[in-house]
Specification:
Blueprint: E1 2-11, H1 12-30, H2 33-39, H3 44-62, E2 71-75, E3 81-85, H4 87-95, E4 98-107, E5 111-120
Antiparallel strand pairs: 1-5, 2-3, 4-5
Helix pairs in contact: 1-3
């Protein structure tokens, strides 16, 4: 059962300017070490912008703000993204009856966009 959805779009240039201003401090606040490592050897800024949008979409699907490091956006071998919730974000999801979050990412030269769908168990009627 779909509990909620969230969507976010970010202008890639905006993230670029924020990273230029705040550098690794911002990077370490928003992205997990595994996300940072996975961004190497790719179009790094576009990759990170997609992860940023995904985390924002997850926040919206859970109706909260928050704990950036507690949301990890990983990819299967075929590059299909998936969400891993940890610590406080996992607790919030559990409290809201969310068992899984589906994520879809897309980007072009200027923007990255993500949609998150929070899935829970069927409710008895």
């Amino acid at each position: 059962m779909i509990r909620a959805i969230g969507i976010d779009i970010i202008k890639i240039e905006r993230l670029k300017k924020a990273l230029q201003r705040w550098g690794t401090r911002l990077e370490r606040k928003v992205f997990t070490p595994e996300e940072i490592n996975a961004s190497q050897g790719r179009t790094r800024l576009t990759y990170l912008a997609g992860r940023f949008a995904a985390k924002e979409a997850v926040f919206k699907s859970l109706g909260t703000g928050g704990y950036w490091q507690d949301i990890e956006v990983l990819a299967e071998k075929n590059n299909k993204p998936y969400i891993v919730l940890q610590k406080k974000m996992k607790i919030i999801a559990d409290q809201k009856g969310v068992k899984k979050i589906l994520i879809s990412l897309s980007h072009d030269n200027d923007y990255a966009i993500a949609q998150a769908i929070a899935i829970g168990e069927e409710k008895d009627q």
